[in-house]
Amino acid sequence: MQCMSTIADINTNFAGFFKQFGTIKRLRIGRNRKTGKSRHFGFIEFESPEVAKVVSECMHNYLLFEHLLQVQLVPPERVHPKLWKGVTHRYKPLDWVKIERCPHDKERTLEEHKKLVERIMKTDKRRRKRIEASGIDYDCPEIIGNQPTSKKIRFDEE
């Protein structure tokens, strides 16, 4: 949730900064689809081309938000038709906890549970050997997991 407010603040600040030159028709800032962070490029369309020319002359190599701006005037014939597609779309961050919860909490068969426990025990055994080999005198707590204790274990009815 904090990410959205930061993105909205940056868009508002960015638009507010360039509004001093003239009316902004459209503003698009490139964002990473996964994280929503800025990709450090953007496009601004002004109402009049004269304003855009003044902005490109004044703001080229200007330090803004700790980055040097590289401002270039793009003629209308070079603008891609899909450039402004999705400009009004608000970025909604993905809930990765919810996404990862499904495979983690899935129902497991008895065989899948045994395989999971064996892998955990093998990793623990390797860890204990590394601790012992490094000369550390440490009594690791035992892992209890040989019996299926989860409610999510599915037994095949035969």
Automatic annotation (TrEMBL):
It comes from Olea europaea subsp. europaea. One of its GO terms (molecular function) is RNA binding. This is Uncharacterized RNA-binding. SMART domains: RRM (SM00360). The keyword Nucleus applies. It comes from the Eukaryota. Pfam families: RRM_1. SUPFAM superfamilies: RNA-binding domain, RBD (SSF54928). It is found in: Nucleus, Nucleolus. One of its GO terms (cellular component) is nucleolus. Residues 1-76 form the RRM domain. Keywords: Nucleus, RNA-binding.
